[in-house]
Amino acid sequence: MILILVILFCVGGGILYLLFAKNTSKDKPLTSDGTASAQMQLQAYERLILLTDRIALPNLISRVNQPGTTARETQYLLTQSIKEEYSHNITQQIYVSADAWTAVKNLKEQNMLIINQLANVLPPNANGMDLNKLLLEYVMTDKKGSMHEVVSEVLSFEAKKVL
Questions:
Q1: For labelling alongside 111, which of 7, 90, 119, 158 has CA 20 to 30 A away?
Q2: How far apart are CA 48 and CA 102, in angstroms?
Q3: What is the per-residue pLDDT for 92?
Q4: pLDDT band at residue 155, thresholds of 50, 70 and 90?
Protein backbone atom coordinates (compact mmCIF):
# COMPACT_ATOMS: atom_id res chain seq x y z
CA MET A 1 0.00 0.00 0.00
CA ILE A 2 2.80 2.45 0.87
CA LEU A 3 4.58 1.46 -2.36
CA ILE A 4 1.48 2.36 -4.40
CA LEU A 5 1.20 5.73 -2.63
CA VAL A 6 4.88 6.47 -3.30
CA ILE A 7 4.46 5.56 -6.97
CA LEU A 8 1.29 7.69 -7.28
CA PHE A 9 3.04 10.56 -5.49
CA CYS A 10 6.02 10.34 -7.86
CA VAL A 11 3.83 10.13 -10.98
CA GLY A 12 1.62 13.00 -9.77
CA GLY A 13 4.65 15.08 -8.91
CA GLY A 14 6.17 14.33 -12.32
CA ILE A 15 2.99 15.40 -14.10
CA LEU A 16 2.82 18.63 -12.09
CA TYR A 17 6.47 19.29 -12.85
CA LEU A 18 5.92 18.79 -16.58
CA LEU A 19 2.88 21.07 -16.57
CA PHE A 20 4.72 23.72 -14.58
CA ALA A 21 7.84 23.49 -16.76
CA LYS A 22 5.76 23.66 -19.94
CA ASN A 23 3.89 26.77 -18.77
CA THR A 24 7.00 28.60 -17.60
CA SER A 25 8.91 27.82 -20.79
CA LYS A 26 6.46 30.05 -22.66
CA ASP A 27 7.58 32.94 -20.49
CA LYS A 28 11.24 32.47 -21.34
CA PRO A 29 12.28 34.51 -24.37
CA LEU A 30 15.37 32.47 -25.22
CA THR A 31 15.67 28.83 -26.10
CA SER A 32 18.70 26.63 -25.80
CA ASP A 33 19.24 26.61 -29.57
CA GLY A 34 19.11 30.43 -29.77
CA THR A 35 16.20 30.67 -32.23
CA ALA A 36 14.33 33.19 -30.09
CA SER A 37 17.50 35.22 -29.69
CA ALA A 38 18.11 35.19 -33.43
CA GLN A 39 14.49 36.22 -34.02
CA MET A 40 14.90 39.18 -31.68
CA GLN A 41 18.09 40.21 -33.45
CA LEU A 42 16.41 40.00 -36.85
CA GLN A 43 13.51 42.11 -35.61
CA ALA A 44 15.98 44.69 -34.32
CA TYR A 45 17.72 44.83 -37.69
CA GLU A 46 14.33 45.20 -39.39
CA ARG A 47 13.42 48.10 -37.11
CA LEU A 48 16.77 49.79 -37.70
CA ILE A 49 16.42 49.44 -41.46
CA LEU A 50 13.01 51.06 -41.13
CA LEU A 51 14.54 53.81 -38.98
CA THR A 52 17.25 54.36 -41.58
CA ASP A 53 14.61 54.68 -44.28
CA ARG A 54 12.48 57.04 -42.21
CA ILE A 55 15.38 59.43 -41.45
CA ALA A 56 16.74 59.38 -45.01
CA LEU A 57 16.54 63.03 -46.06
CA PRO A 58 14.25 62.58 -49.11
CA ASN A 59 11.77 60.47 -47.12
CA LEU A 60 11.96 62.75 -44.12
CA ILE A 61 11.29 65.82 -46.25
CA SER A 62 8.25 64.28 -47.92
CA ARG A 63 6.81 63.11 -44.59
CA VAL A 64 7.46 66.28 -42.56
CA ASN A 65 6.83 68.87 -45.27
CA GLN A 66 4.35 71.53 -44.17
CA PRO A 67 3.56 74.29 -46.67
CA GLY A 68 3.76 77.80 -45.32
CA THR A 69 6.51 77.20 -42.77
CA THR A 70 9.70 79.18 -42.51
CA ALA A 71 13.08 77.58 -43.11
CA ARG A 72 13.76 77.68 -39.35
CA GLU A 73 10.45 75.95 -38.58
CA THR A 74 11.16 73.30 -41.19
CA GLN A 75 14.66 72.85 -39.78
CA TYR A 76 13.14 72.27 -36.36
CA LEU A 77 10.52 69.83 -37.69
CA LEU A 78 13.13 67.81 -39.58
CA THR A 79 15.61 67.57 -36.72
CA GLN A 80 12.86 66.85 -34.19
CA SER A 81 11.54 64.03 -36.35
CA ILE A 82 15.01 62.48 -36.56
CA LYS A 83 15.43 62.72 -32.78
CA GLU A 84 12.03 61.12 -32.16
CA GLU A 85 12.64 58.26 -34.58
CA TYR A 86 16.04 57.61 -33.07
CA SER A 87 14.75 57.76 -29.49
CA HIS A 88 11.92 55.39 -30.35
CA ASN A 89 14.44 52.79 -31.55
CA ILE A 90 17.34 53.35 -29.17
CA THR A 91 16.80 50.06 -27.31
CA GLN A 92 17.49 48.08 -30.48
CA GLN A 93 21.20 48.66 -29.95
CA ILE A 94 21.35 45.80 -27.43
CA TYR A 95 20.39 43.30 -30.16
CA VAL A 96 22.71 44.43 -32.96
CA SER A 97 26.46 44.64 -33.45
CA ALA A 98 28.36 47.71 -32.29
CA ASP A 99 29.26 48.49 -35.91
CA ALA A 100 25.62 48.39 -36.98
CA TRP A 101 24.54 50.68 -34.15
CA THR A 102 27.41 53.07 -34.82
CA ALA A 103 26.34 53.29 -38.47
CA VAL A 104 22.78 54.19 -37.46
CA LYS A 105 23.99 56.72 -34.90
CA ASN A 106 26.34 58.32 -37.44
CA LEU A 107 23.52 58.59 -39.98
CA LYS A 108 21.36 60.38 -37.42
CA GLU A 109 24.15 62.80 -36.52
CA GLN A 110 25.13 63.42 -40.13
CA ASN A 111 21.57 64.14 -41.27
CA MET A 112 21.01 66.57 -38.42
CA LEU A 113 24.31 68.29 -39.20
CA ILE A 114 23.42 68.61 -42.89
CA ILE A 115 19.99 70.06 -42.07
CA ASN A 116 21.45 72.56 -39.62
CA GLN A 117 24.33 73.62 -41.86
CA LEU A 118 22.17 74.11 -44.93
CA ALA A 119 19.51 75.95 -42.92
CA ASN A 120 22.20 78.34 -41.68
CA VAL A 121 23.26 79.35 -45.20
CA LEU A 122 19.74 80.44 -46.12
CA PRO A 123 18.68 84.06 -45.64
CA PRO A 124 16.51 84.80 -42.59
CA ASN A 125 13.38 85.23 -44.73
CA ALA A 126 13.69 81.83 -46.47
CA ASN A 127 10.74 79.49 -46.37
CA GLY A 128 10.56 75.77 -45.73
CA MET A 129 10.41 74.96 -49.42
CA ASP A 130 13.76 76.72 -49.90
CA LEU A 131 15.35 74.51 -47.25
CA ASN A 132 13.74 71.36 -48.64
CA LYS A 133 14.95 72.21 -52.14
CA LEU A 134 18.49 72.84 -50.89
CA LEU A 135 18.48 69.55 -48.96
CA LEU A 136 17.28 67.57 -51.98
CA GLU A 137 19.90 69.20 -54.20
CA TYR A 138 22.53 68.20 -51.66
CA VAL A 139 21.29 64.60 -51.60
CA MET A 140 21.44 64.45 -55.39
CA THR A 141 24.96 65.88 -55.68
CA ASP A 142 26.90 64.69 -52.62
CA LYS A 143 27.81 61.10 -51.75
CA LYS A 144 27.18 61.82 -48.06
CA GLY A 145 23.58 62.59 -48.98
CA SER A 146 22.96 58.92 -49.76
CA MET A 147 24.60 57.58 -46.62
CA HIS A 148 21.25 56.03 -45.66
CA GLU A 149 21.70 53.53 -48.49
CA VAL A 150 25.10 52.49 -47.15
CA VAL A 151 23.73 52.13 -43.62
CA SER A 152 20.82 50.02 -44.92
CA GLU A 153 23.29 47.76 -46.71
CA VAL A 154 25.37 47.37 -43.53
CA LEU A 155 22.26 46.47 -41.53
CA SER A 156 21.08 44.04 -44.19
CA PHE A 157 24.49 42.37 -44.31
CA GLU A 158 24.55 42.04 -40.52
CA ALA A 159 21.01 40.59 -40.50
CA LYS A 160 21.98 37.98 -43.07
CA LYS A 161 24.79 36.85 -40.79
CA VAL A 162 22.20 36.14 -38.10
CA LEU A 163 20.28 33.92 -40.52
A1: 158
A2: 12
A3: 96
A4: very high
The residues that bridge with 127 in the sheet, in sequence order, are 70
For 3, residues 6+ apart whose C-beta sits below 8 A from its C-beta are: none
At 3-20, the pLDDT tens digits run 554 454 554 454 545 445
Query: How long is the chain?
Result: 163
Residue 35 has a pLDDT of: 82
Cα Dmax for the chain: 97
Residues 6 or more apart whose Cβ sits within 8 Å of residue 158 = 45, 96, 97, 99, 100
Return all residues near 94 (Cβ < 8 A) that are at least 6 apart.
Answer: 44
Q: Could you tell me the sign of the dihedral formed by the alpha carbons of 60, 66, 68, 70, in that order?
A: negative
pTM for this structure? 0.77
CATH number of 33-162: 1.20.120
CA-CA distance, 121 to 110, in Å (whole number)?
Answer: 17
